[in-house]
Amino acid sequence: MKQFPPSELLNSLPKQFFASLVKKVGEYISQGYDVINLGQGNPDQPTPAHIVAKLQEAAVNPINHKYSPFQGHSYLKKAVADYYLREYGVTIDPTKEVAILFGGKAGLVEIPQCLLNPGDTILVPDPGYPDYLSGVALAKAEMVMMPLKEDKNFLPDYTELNEKDLEKAKVMFLNYPNNPTGAVATCEFFEETIKLASDHDICIVHDFAYGAIGFDGQKPLSFLQLEGAKEVGIEIYTLSKTYNMAGWRVGFAVGNESVISAIELMQDHLYVSLFGAVQEAAAEALTGPQDCVKELNELYERRRNVLIDGLRSLGWNVNAPNGSFFAWLKVPKGYSSSEFANILLDQAHIMVAPGIGFGEFGEGYVRVGLLSSEERLAKAVERISRLEIFKKIY
Ligand SMILES: Cc1ncc(COP(=O)(O)O)c(C=O)c1O
User: Fold this and answer.
1) 124-168 pLDDT, tens per residue?
2) Residue 98 has what pLDDT?
3) Residue 315: exposed, middle, or buried by beta-carbon count in 10 A (0-12, 13-18, 19+)?
4) Over the stretch 7-27, which tens digit does the pLDDT of each residue have?
5) Which residues contact 22 (CB under 8 A, 6 or more apart)?
6) Residue 270 and residue 15: Cα distance in Å, rounded?
7) 142-147 and 121-126: which strand pairing?
8) Which of 40, 176, 179 to mutate to test the pocket of ligand 1 (most atoms within 8 A of CB)?
């Protein structure tokens, strides 16, 4: 058969770092091993029943069998505005300040192409969600990495950026609660960000994927809660994590009108909007009963406590995440993040994600997902306690 080579653009896309690890996990499972998979970020709980019921009801309505309006249904945009007002006290104009997305990932990959020309500069957190790099590659833009370090609570230190890069930068990605570090943002940090953005004309794209997951009674801050935020940026929200709707592919961008209209223009060319029944169900999720969100948050917090308390009881001095459903654990001295992840997989049949897969500054850490039951997490701790290397180190 003829082989048609992919374009240079496709070849320029970043390689999937975790593919080899996922393959190895598959091999262990096919050999009958009970692998505890703490490496991936797929919510394990079902979508709440009232949201599924709305989808079922909406799926039989012939109006939803037609094309949806190109930029999405106005009732969903209104639901988004109601959600921001209710949850964050932020006023959003649903006609100009909301774009409906096929999940957060789609928006995050589209944005560099909406705002950047080839060779333009974008500031990207390191470690960070790997899909940021995909959008940047498609836009043929240049990245300047912003290190997230433990001694700065995994917030970028803007004083470390050089003036030339700041002058060139047109866009900055941020993400709090943070994947992979579990860090949360503060008001002061967002204020500093808004000042920097307005001084240097940088558009801030705050990825708020884990907006609903904050621990110890702390509700994560929306970037838009800060005065002046809408002037300089947008927030990307997804229903994937808040309502366990990862498979449904629905999210939205909110904030700066010019950026929202750029996203809508791009999407007019790429797609017709989401299935109407998914939009109805998404509106129900945002405006319907919210006990499910509280319960989910409590579930993740209990899991976090099982994992962190368990590991600390072994003498491993790990940090507890403040938000997101990930724990970011410093690996024992003498091991790289990949070596340590391989030891956990080979000797304890536990999969974790090596930090280096999230960027250079992820080296020295592994990311552990809180997407397995308390029992499984306790079992993981028990398996770790029996590791030889662990006994030698601690
Ligand atoms: C930091 C971050 N942003 C965005 C997303 C995208 O989520 P979705 O495309 O399901 O909305 C994820 C998903 O894992 C994520 O971890």
Assistant:
1) 999 999 999 999 999 999 999 999 999 999 999 999 999 999 999
2) 98
3) exposed
4) 999 999 998 777 878 888 899
5) 39, 40
6) 24
7) parallel
8) 179
Those residues whose C-beta lies under 8 Å from the C-beta of residue 58, and which sit 6 or more positions away, are: 64, 276, 277, 280, 281
Beta strands in the chain (DSSP E): 36-37, 98-101, 121-126, 142-147, 169-175, 203-207, 233-238, 251-255, 326-330, 350-351, 353-354, 365-369
User: Using CA positions, which residue lies closest to atom 3 of ligand 1?
Assistant: 209
Tokens standing for residue 359: 């960027």
380 φ/ψ angles, rounded to the nearest 5 degrees: -60, -45
Q: How far is the CA of 139 from the centre of ligand 1 (A)?
A: 19
304 within 8 A of 182, measured Cβ to Cβ: no
User: Residue 174 burial by CB count (10 A; 0-12/13-18/19+): exposed, middle or buried?
Assistant: buried
- The SS3 of residue 119 is coil
Phi (first) and psi of residue 280, to 5 degrees: -65, -45
Strands in 365-369's sheet, in edge-to-edge order, are 326-330, 365-369, 353-354
**Structure token pair of residue 284:** 């129900």
**The pairing of beta strand 251-255 with beta strand 365-369:** unpaired
Regarding the beta carbon of 207 and ligand 1, being less than 6 Å apart is answered: yes
Is residue 13 within 8 A of residue 140, CB to CB? The reply is no
Contact 348, 387 (CB under 8 A): yes
Is residue 40 classed as helix, strand or coil in its secondary structure? coil
> Is the CB of 175 inside a 6 Å radius of any atom of ligand 1?
yes
